[in-house]
Amino acid sequence: MSGPVRLRIDAAGPFDHAAALATLSAHAVEGLHRLDLEAGTFTRWVDVGEAEDVLVTVRLDAGGAELSTSSRREAVHARLVAHTTHWFGLAADLEPVDALLGADPLFAEQVRERPGVRLVRFRPPFEAVVSTVLGQQVSLAAGRLFAARLVAAFGTDPSADGPRIFPRPSALAAVPVEELRAAIRLTGSRARTVHEVAELFAEQDGPAVLPERSELAGVHGIGAWTLDHLALRAGTDADAYPAGDAVLRRTLAALDPSADAARIASWCPYRGYAATRLWAFGR
């Protein structure tokens, strides 16, 4: 039997893969991902369209990423490459980003010492929205625990001993709110939000398309922090900045207690990269 297919993606310039791996580690959900920091690998199921999921291992290095999959289909390979390129921002030209942020004394040394800090959008939109909702107003560890409970209760395990597949929107929308609340051990209000998110995705094109901001804003329990976080983590807005994020506020205050809204505005149109670099200070 032939071995797995390997696909190479070269980053468009430097890539701080250690920062990307640290982000993956900070957000890894038990049962959903298999992360090996020493090897630099990340394994999970990927929805490649038409309700088909493919198991893929991504190995990150300073030059980009190498994918490993058992699929022999070229169309699947193209989708995996596109997904991975988007997840880790590998196609982005960082020269103008680092020029702008590096001119600010707050980032200057970090930009010199750690070039290639890229945006990490490593989850499909539906999974990202649900996980972000579960992480609202709780610690990162608590949000990961809620997500792990959701995956254990409602995810599927095609291989019986590997990572599980995050539940489809239609499947989660079919679960009564009270059952969601009990399985994940949420408040009734948070369970309602998860259920409404599942209904919203089930009514549209599926888990791979992020709804418009106005649609998400209409969901019970979703506010500005969640919308800004999703614009950065699950969308394509490199200027999104979740100003209400507690870690960003603490890090910025520690680096410069006098930093204000004008300074944050000076990072436009790359405030998302500024946020990523602020998070990287603690990792």
Summarize the structure.
The chain is an alpha+beta fold and 283 residues long. It is built from 14 helices and 5 strands. The chain has helices at residues 17-27, 74-87, 95-102, 105-113, 125-134, 140-154, 169-173, 177-184, 188-203, 213-217, 224-233, 246-255, 261-265, 271-281, and strands at 5-10, 34-36, 41-47, 53-61, 64-69.
Structure description:
The chain has 283 residues and is an alpha+beta fold. Among the domains are: 5-91, TATA-Binding Protein (2-Layer Sandwich), CATH 3.30.310.20; 125-233, Endonuclease III, domain 1 (Orthogonal Bundle). 48% of the residues lie in helices and 11% in strands. It has a 5-stranded antiparallel beta sheet with strand order 1-5-4-3-2. Helix 5 runs antiparallel to helix 11. The protein is globular. The N and C termini lie far apart (41 Å). 40% of the residues are buried.
